[in-house]
Design a protein that fits this description.
The complex is a heterodimer of chains A (65) and B (150). Chain A is an all-alpha fold. Chain A has 5 helices and no strands. Chain A has helices at residues 5-11, 16-23, 27-34, 42-51, 56-60. The longest helix of chain A has 10 residues, at 42-51. The longest helix of chain B is centred in the last third of the chain and has 33 residues, at 117-149. Chain B has helices spanning 13-40, 48-70, 80-111, 117-149. The chains are: A mainly alpha (65), B mainly alpha (150). Chain A binds chain B through residues 16-17, 24-29, 31-32, 34-35, 38, 40-41, 44, and chain B through 11-15, 72, 75-76, 78, 142, 145-146, 149-150.
């Protein structure tokens, strides 16, 4: 699933490790989500959105261009 | 989700999901193996002990093999520096394990009155090499996987 987690995380100057620690998962899981290789649970999506100060729409909603 | 197996599962949801898949696949393989053995037992005589041991071995080797090859054990090893540090830790961990295992096995050998140095060194070296190899493959696979995710 395509998402904006990586770009948003980089904009907030947060490392994968920091985001992982704050959301209670491993760095590998954050990396997989950013690459679109793992679809997180809604609970984890919300935790990531809260840490990055974004809405679920802004992070995970696909917009056709 | 509540389940009695939750206490065996890791906190991380991706790792948990993968492990559940490996255990389920192992369970299905074990089931198929047992079905084949029940059918075969009508035609050939089978040693129950061997079959039960083979079933346990199939489940253990499959789930352990999948876990090691999946690269999900060392989730935070992504840079060369971290990899080298983890490799050093792995070597010292293996050395400690070999020493503890060696002492335990030596005591067992002495008390069971079957002392043979060839057996002793053969077993300790085999266990040490196997333990190192399994950990090393897992570390290498994890590093490779994590490096691609940076």
């Amino acid at each position: 699933m395509k998402n904006n987690v990586k770009i948003t995380r980089i904009k907030t100057s947060m490392t994968q490790q920091q985001l992982a620690k704050k959301t209670g998962v491993t760095r590998q899981t954050i990396g997989l989500i950013e690459k679109g290789e793992y679809n997180p649970t809604l609970q984890l999506c919300i935790a990531i959105a809260k840490e990055l100060d974004k809405t679920l729409d802004e992070l995970f909603w696909e917009v056709e261009e | 989700m509540k389940s009695w197996i939750s206490f065996l599962m890791p906190e991380d949801e991706y790792k948990e999901k993968k492990m559940l898949y490996f255990l389920a696949e192992g369970g299905v393989l074990l089931f198929l193996f047992l079905v084949i053995m029940i059918i075969s037992s009508n035609f050939i005589s089978l040693d129950t002990g061997v079959i039960l041991l083979a079933g346990i071995a199939i489940f253990l080797f499959y789930t352990l093999g999948r876990y090691i090859l999946s690269g999900i054990e060392h989730t935070d090893i992504a840079t060369e520096k971290e990899y080298k540090r983890a490799l050093r830790a792995l070597k010292s961990r293996t050395a400690s394990f070999v020493v503890v295992f060696g002492i335990g096995y030596l005591i067992y050998k002495i008390t069971s009155d079957q002392a043979s140095w060839y057996d002793f060194f053969g077993m300790v070296i085999s266990v040490g090499v196997l333990s190192f190899l399994l950990d090393f493959i897992s570390l290498k696979r994890s590093y490779k996987k994590n490096k691609e995710l940076l």
